[in-house]
Amino acid sequence: MAKILILGAGSMSTAFAFPCSDNNHEVSIVGTHLEDNFIDIIKSNKNVHPALKSRIPNNVKLYKFNSFHDLLKKADLIVIGVSSKGIHWASEQLTKIKSNQQILILTKGLNVNKKNRYEVYPDTVKNFLLKNGIKSFKISVAAGPCLASDLSNRVLTNVIFANKDIFVVRNLSKMLSTYYYKIKCSKDVVGVAACGGIKNIYAMIVGTSMGINLKKEKDNKNLNTAAALFNQSVKEMCYFIKKIGGQESTVINLAGVGDLYVSCTGGRNSKMGKFIGMGMTYKKAKKSKMPNETVEGADLIFDIGNKIIKDFTVKELPLMTSFIKALINNTKFQIDKKLFS
Q1: CA distance 63 to 43
Q2: Average pLDDT over residues 1-8
Q3: Contact 199, 110 (CB under 8 A)
């Protein structure tokens, strides 16, 4: 039995506690410094998570952030489940980890570092720890098609863990796999981690298909258009991932196609895409339709979009570059039908 410490009380990090708990590990969920009130809400609701609508297993303990550093000392595995905006903050909380500490990152995305290079979150955390004199640790990343609500209901879920040392994630797989939570392993950290972020942008793009002609036909899902956009998105993801140092085969797997499919069938990114497809600008849709919801794909665009436009031509990434420009310039997005000739 291992001691697993999960940082973040959001939907995905909490859902991840379910397979950990079902493997009889000692699991602690610690909210971030911004989630003290949220922890109180969960506890007052008999440990039913407000977003998941599921009761957290009885053997999973909930704590406010002031307990984190005490629990850190005894943790065998630290799981980072904060939002993309909190990844740097989360890194700062790990300066007291023990030697050879195991860390698993659930947070999906990538950023541009001070050297103006694309950097996936495992490298963000690694570089921060190295800069602070911490040299002995094992950082892995999780990705793939995994809706938190499904995971908390223990439905069949197939994900992928990545570490350059394949034996590290194979051991994690043995430690965390259940009859419903199946884990594949990869050495392609860049590909797996980057797919987890980039697919959010493409989920928005595919989601625009749901908004086209919506005023004329309320139930029109435009599946033909969605399929065309999905196919082009996969092509562009392959090109992008290969260019930044990942493997094209990773895209045609759980971290890419699998995760993109799940994100297109539901979630905040495709929901935003629907409003943009209806002809709204991003700012109008965010303010009027999703004022309190985090849209990960949009956040990523505002973080690294300008660099993507600079590094890639319209010919190389026609969908992504045109969509990024629409969001950054707050203009309407239109699909260039010449792409499909």
Answers
A1: 10
A2: 96
A3: no
